[in-house]
Amino acid sequence: MVTIKKDFLDVNPFSRPGTKLGKVKGVVIHWYGNPGSRAQANRNYWNSLKDGRGVYASAHYCIDQDGSVVQALPESELAYQVGSPKGYTQNALNKLSSYPNNCTIGIENAHPDAAGKFYDKDYSTCIELAADILKRNGLTHNDLWRHSDIVGKAYKDCPRYYTNNESEWILLKEAVRLKMAGGTASKPANPTYTVPPFSQAIGSIQTKMEMNLRKGPGVNYAVTKVVKKGTGLSAFESKNGWYRVSSGEWISGGDKYIYFNKKSDKPVVPSPVVPKKQYVYFPPKKGKWSVYPTSKPAQKQYAKGQINPDKFGGLTYPVLKDHGGWVFEISTDSFGRVKVYCHPDTGAITSWNGPGKWPNVQK
What we know:
- The chain is 16% helix and 25% strand.
- The protein is of the alpha+beta class and 363 residues long.
- The protein folds into 3 domains: 4-180, Lysozyme-like, CATH 3.40.80; 199-261, SH3 type barrels (Roll); 279-351, Roll (SH3 type barrels), CATH 2.30.30.
- Helix 3 (120-136) crosses helix 6 (166-180).
């Protein structure tokens, strides 16, 4: 049961205009964008906007690290959650409205670091709360939106982790679907499975489009993974128009979705992964980059210093570990092994094919 504290914002032009919300057409998932932020603090920030500083922002619900919820606006009122000076995606215009704030309910989520993956308790609450709102408004899990789905990823990568990791977003939506059907709010888990020898395969598969893999042979089973168009798989069993692949997961066998060769003498064996060295380049005249201890999140309060590429005409580092969400681990002469946030918006440039002609490659 979700614990909700109602602490509505004061009516004001910048965060609670008091405008009546139209028919609800979707639920929008956000991240705070401020690692470690708490629900009450986020609500209080929105309320402080009434001082007239010119910032418009709010959402209906704020979820805390512990899974509790602060409700900042009644569901019957409009929130300033998906405004965009750059306009909206065509999909949002087609399915929502020309101004999606007027028909959506927003949920903000807490996360420990810049990668943006929600806290576990937040995640569970988000699923339960979203499922409840959707169900009450006669909607389905397909009416769940990321902020980035509405305004475009180039403008807002919110919620970052679930925008940058499509398969995680699909799993979240699937968890909401299961919750609406009476299931649990936890993440779908992959069962332990022994991979059979390829000699036992009954045929080979190639996907015609991006496809879901599921825990069982049917759409009522949870999505476990998403594979890209052109993915090669070996099939080991056929059931109700579905094929079991080497991982034990199932894929739809419809001609619309896959090519299937049941006469194959040589089942598809996955190509070996050839590791490519990842590098990150910090160009001059783009500012400085803060570095963080490897044991801490990439958050401002943990910064232990800065890289200043201006002194060297640019600096290039091999990436020792990719923590996700553009947080990379590198080794520096001054600070040793550290984390650094390298999103393209910061000016950093990443390569998965070596440093090329970048200058000052560090060892």
